[in-house]
Amino acid sequence: MTNTPSAPAGPLSVAYWRGFRQALPFILVIAPFGLLFGVAGNEAGFDLLEVMGFSVLVIAGASQFTAVQLMNDHASTVMVILAALAVNLRMAMYSASLAPHLGAASTWQRAFVAYSMVDQAFALADADYNRAPKQSLAAKLTYYTGACTPIVPLWYSSTLVGALLGKAIPPAFALDFAVPVTFLAMIAPMLRSIPHLVAAAVSVIMALVLAFLPAGTGLIIAALLAMVAGAQTELWLTKRRALQ
Q1: pLDDT (tens digit, 9 = 90+) per residue, 40-60?
Q2: 99 Cβ partners below 8 Å, 6+ apart?
Q3: Where are the transmembrane segments (predicted)?
């Protein structure tokens, strides 16, 4: 998000600053999350360009950690790619959720949304669009830009600091708290329906059951089973409602 649009003038500025303000609390977890990845990349033997390439090109913290861990475990290139893609499959669901709101945007606008889509920005946008679905397309895009502004540049800069400092950051800072806290804060509000709850439960249970499998294959299988379980639950509920 190096070319983030500047805050718009006029009524759209209200949407921009609303998104900006609502994203500010995530700074508390994005900064240590980025620092932690910078340190992890440094300890894995990556140089500064490789660490920053991960964060700027991939911009997906969870899959970045997954890839680095598997590379440290000497997993094959194919397995590293598959595991990282499995972790990021949620982005496909995010896209499907936002498509009814942003699908009419221009190609470059949709490209910007796709590139800058992170969990926090999606969670905020999804909640805002569902709260006020009749907002104009311009207002929705402006809100999304505002939500990304405090998050994405901070991810870059905190990764850079972590990569530069490396092991100089004392373990007492316990930066790894940011990973579970971030995902708990984002996932909990999204568990709004029975299919969501089923998918979450299946993913957790199967990830634990299949943890013995090598090189992250258990995570891939757990993610696929969770998606199937959630989809089947949704179909079952739809048929049940149709019969009532």
Answers
A1: 888 788 889 999 998 998 888
A2: none
A3: 20-41, 48-68, 74-92, 137-156, 168-187
Whether pTM exceeds 0.70? yes
Instruction: Dig out the tokens for 59 from the structure.
Output: 């911009």
* Distances from the Cα of 243 to the Cα of 50, 114, 236, 238, 239, angstroms: 56, 39, 11, 9, 6
* Cα torsion 30, 31, 32, 34: sign: positive
Rounded CA separation 180/186 (Å): 10
Q: Which DSSP state fits 57?
A: I
Per the CB < 8 A criterion, the answer to whether 229 and 223 are in contact is no
Question: Do 123 and 23 meet the contact criterion of CB atoms below 8 Å apart?
Answer: no
How far apart are the C-alpha atoms of 120 and 123, rounded to whole Å?
5
* Count of residues making up the chain: 244
Domain ranges of the chain: 12-190, 191-244
